[in-house]
Amino acid sequence: MGSTSTWWRQLLLPCAESSPALARSFVRAHLHENGLASRCDDVELVVSELATNAVVHARTACSVRLAYGGGVLHLHVQDRSPEPVRPTVDRGADAPGGRGLVLVDAFSDAWGVRTAAPGAKTVWATFAVH
């Protein structure tokens, strides 16, 4: 059963190869702590893809915000690049990348991109918790 309280947590991450793993650990810890482990695998996958995009494509530090309320878990990853997110068409099984946003779309209930502060963007995803 999911948590009934409303809460949020935030983590700041450097532009480093270790950031996606730190983002996954952050998500795992807070979802288990708040009784929301049922969506842990999906949220970990999505945060990993979004943090990887921040490091590899935006080439900036990022922040990960996780919030819960009203039966919905919200994930926001903000980087310091104003460049838009461009979903990549699957380039085949042998391609080394290009599936991140396809996975975000498949494992979240909804997702999108919005302009954050000047020179930054936030990619968000939501997950219903039953």
Please summarize what this structure is:
This protein is α+β, with helices and mostly antiparallel strands and 130 residues long.
What does this 3D model show about the protein?
This protein is an alpha+beta fold and 130 residues long. 32% of the residues lie in helices and 28% in strands. The protein has helices spanning 19-33, 40-58, 100-107, and strands at 7-13, 62-69, 72-79, 110-115, 121-128. A hairpin with a 2-residue loop joins β2 (62-69) and β3 (72-79). α1 (19-33) runs antiparallel to α2 and α2 packs antiparallel against α3. The longest helix is centred in the middle third of the chain and has 19 residues, at 40-58. The chain is globular and about 35 Å long. The mean pLDDT is 88.
Most strands sheet: 5 strands, antiparallel
Helix content bin? 25-40%
Q: Could you tell me the radius of gyration in angstroms?
A: 14 Å
Figure out the total of helices: 3
Question: What is the count of β-strands?
Answer: 5
Name the beta content range. 25-35%
Mean pLDDT level: 88
Shape: globular
What structural category characterises the helix and strand content? Answer: alpha+beta
Task: Report the order of strands and helices.
Answer: EHHEEHEE
Low-confidence stretches: none
In what order do the strands lie side by side in the largest sheet?
1-2-3-5-4
Q: How would you classify the quaternary structure?
A: single chain
Q: What's the N-to-C terminus distance?
A: 7 Å
